[in-house]
Amino acid sequence: MTPRPLEGKLVRLRALEALDEPLVYRWINDPEVAQWLMARLPFSHQQIHDYIAQSSPSYEEARFGIESRSDGSLIGVCYLALTALPDRRARLGIEVGDRARWGRGYGTDAMVTLCRYGFAMMNLHRIELEVFRENERAIRVYERTGFRVEGTRREAAWKFGRYHDLVLMGLLEGELVDADGT
C-alpha cells in the first residue's frame, strides 16, 4: 500500500479553504485556544482571510488545515516554515482550535503526520519549535512524538503582564515516534 503522507490515524492534513475563515477566526480570538500562542492582539476577519489566501502549500511554508478523519470537520491548523534551506531545517507551529478534540489524541496524531510529511516530502533533516514552559500539555505531546528539549530562552516572551520562558525543542529525521509509541 502506498503511504499517504498527509493522513494520520485520526487526522488528515489538507489545504485551507476560504470557507474555513470563520472557524480559524473564532479559534485565534478565543482566549483559551490562543493562551499559549505568540499572538497577543485580536485578529480581524480580513487578516485571517489573507492568511488563508496565502496558505497554498509550498516548500518554503507548508500550511495545512487539520481535519478529523471520522467526520471531515476542520479541528485546527498547522505549518512547517523552512528556516534554513542548506540545513534542511524548518519551524513547526500547530493549533488544535476545536476544544472538544483536546486530550483525545488529535494533536499528537497531527504532530506525527506533519513531521512525517516534513521528513518524507520536504526532505527536512530537522524540525524545531518553541513552547511556553507553562504549556505542559503541549510539551508532553511534543516529547511523545520524539522532540527533545534542547534549551530554554529565559524570559523571552511577554504575555499576561509578565515574561515567560520559552522551551526550545528539536526533532531530527529518524527520531519521529508514531502516535502509538513506535
Report on this model:
With 182 residues, the chain is an alpha+beta fold. The protein has one domain (11-172): Gcn5-related N-acetyltransferase (GNAT) (Aminopeptidase, 3-Layer(aba) Sandwich), CATH 3.40.630. It is 25% helix and 34% strand. α4 links the parallel β4 and β5. The longest helix has 16 residues, at 106-121. It starts with 10 loop residues before the first strand and ends in a 10-residue tail after the last strand. 30% of the residues are buried.
Number of helices: 5
Structural class: alpha+beta
Portion of residues within helices: 25-40%
Query: Rounded to an integer, what's the Rg over CA atoms?
Result: 16 Å
Could you tell me the number of beta strands? 7
Q: State the CATH class.
A: Alpha Beta
Q: Judging from the principal axes of the Cα atoms, what is the shape?
A: globular
Largest sheet: 7 strands, mixed
Order of helices and strands: EHHHEEEHEHEE
Strand order of the largest sheet: 1-2-3-4-5-7-6
Domain unit count: 1
The CATH H-level homologous superfamily: Gcn5-related N-acetyltransferase (GNAT)
Question: Strand content of the residues, in percent?
Answer: 25-35%
> In CATH terms, what is the fold-level topology?
Aminopeptidase
CATH architecture: 3-Layer(aba) Sandwich
